[in-house]
Amino acid sequence: MGQASGASVIEQxxxxxxxxxxxxxxxxxAYADDVSISNSYTTVHTLTNYSGAEQxxxxxxxxxxxxSSEIENCFMYGSVLNQIRELLIGAFIGENHSSAITxxxxxxxxxxxxxxxxxxxxxxxSLSTVQFNSxxxxxxYDFVDVxxxxxxxxxxxxxxxxxNVANAFKINEEILGEGTQFNPYVIFDAATLSELMEYHNNxxx
Length: 205
Fold this sequence. Notes:
Blueprint: E1 3-4, E2 8-11, E3 14-15, E4 18-21, E5 25-26, E6 29-32, E7 35-42, E8 45-48, E9 58-59, E10 62-65, E11 70-76, E12 79-82, E13 89-90, E14 93-96, E15 101-107, E16 115-118, E17 125-127, H1 129-132, E18 147-150, E19 161-162, E20 171-172, H2 190-203
């Protein structure tokens, strides 16, 4: 996505493929000002050949984020690389002016700051490959109605996927949680409930 502004709302979207250019690049969006982005992700491989001295505004998820924008429950499970200089890029955001960046993650193989130029209190968190494969790594993500984990024979692997595009994938509906007060079971549907009941009937007592 190139640019979004003017109180735009972007939710439950994803991007994949490759992005190549010089300045102001993002795996999901290049420029976001007065925009709300939620429950979205990118697996794009972003490549820049920028060699200038100024801020490149290149990030694995977003190139530039304005002060009035909000990004929540989003992640980057791709790569970002500068062919010319190993500088001036952010693993998640290139240049950020918003403090409303919540529950956002990037893949730790990207050896850059999560946010390269950051004039707010916003932070993003890096996750390992193993952590990306676990739903428990994603704080306050809705794994009942919005997100799912791909099954072992899915076309994709390694990170959560959106249920609204799950026709392209297979969702792993294994029982999540431990059945305790602080980590209860997650019941996706009637089939999962039946599986849980069968599990308890077979192994209780």
